[in-house]
Amino acid sequence: MATNVAAAPHDTREKPRLSFWQIWNMSFGFLGIQFGFALQNANVSRIFETLGGTEIALYWLAAPLTGMLVQPIIGYMSDRTWSPKWGRRRPFFLIGAVLASFALLVMPNVSALWMAVGMLWIMDSSINISMEPFRALVGDLLPSEQRTTGFAAQTFFIGVGAVVASSLPWMFTNWFGIANTAPAGQIPPSVKYAFYIGGVVFFLAVLWTVLNTKEYPPENMDAFEDEKRRTAGFWNGIRESFAGITHMPKTMAQLAIVQFFSWLALFSMWIYTTPAVTSHIYHTTDTTSKLYNEGADWVGVCFAVYNGVSAVAALLLPVIARATSRRFTHLICLVAGGLGLISIYFISDPKMLLVSMVGVGIAWASILSVPYAMLAGALPANKMGYYMGVFNFFIVIPQVVAGLILGFFTKSVFHGESVLTLVLGGCSMIISGLLTLRVNDDDDVRLPAAEATIHTSSPAYDTTIESNPRV
Fold first, then answer.
1. Does position 468 have pLDDT exceeding 50, yes or no?
2. Which of 51, 273, 391, 465 has the largest count of CB atoms under 10 Å?
3. Residue 92 maps to which CATH number?
């Protein structure tokens, strides 16, 4: 049951408006995070098939089940963390980056299917440790009128990181002549090198944010310490995390349904685009063939395109939201994405897939920013990380559903035609857009045009908070 948390403690300080470079620095780590996710999304199904896997959707369940546990716990713990040197969220950024970078280096060297599934579990958990506090950081540091811009800046870096990461296997093959095929049961060298680059970039990008971002201390340190002592403990975190579902703000409960259908669509795309494109357009299922691997590489290029589109679209979202509303902006973006996925069924020329990916990219930009901007204004400041973690349930639940039912639909209902699973995902995304219209968005602030962009002038700071102008 959703509840109103308006009476919960909020940070009453007036947060200063941040400059362009301050928002840049606090968002830059997402470049690395998305390197990890993009390599995972574009290549893990390919790795599973290469190692002889057939139940691809089921293998992907390893990732969401860990995310369901990790993100709320990390949010709960980061809400109760404070170090004068490292702040609240940044310790978790760094821990996650170290673990995720290690997983990215190991993943392309696995030699058995069970090892690939286990490494996906480790990799996804580690990326989530870094990612969840980044969402909370926007609510921590930005005033209400800059939150859409803050999440859009994260989306920009997500797009840039994913463009490069998704294209890496294709670039290694076509620009440097590195083989994209390998004997049966072995991962191609082009994929291996892509993961190695990803591990390095992930760590360095997150480290940039850690070193160049400063956080505000708790408004009332005594109250913060009392709350931390009262609610300390790992099991407290688990109990509180799952109890959070029954105490959600109304806006969060409404957004949960929107998230379910939009992320169900995304998971259908990530899991089934490679088999759909290789079988429906390249007409092969032989994972050792040159044609299959050309198709799998082209999927990486397609994913790069939708992420590139999302990086550009993210810059326009605050302007569109100001002119209309955040709800309407999300609606039109999700409809564009749904039509993009559905259109793949009608395509025979691989190059035309890039047109489909334009719609997907527009939707992706909105999914990564607008729901979080709407949510942040409905949350108490002292539970920002916790509720952002609980909100991850509504990304994880559709992934679990995708793992449990999409395989059945693909095999038994669609008779092995993976492309029809993408059509189903497109319909789900359109439904998500329509459901957005029923979300209460009381924090939808309308701004003059000059205030809808990222400001380039540095605000005056309270020197008791931080004398370094880089936040």
1. no
2. 273
3. 1.20.1250.20
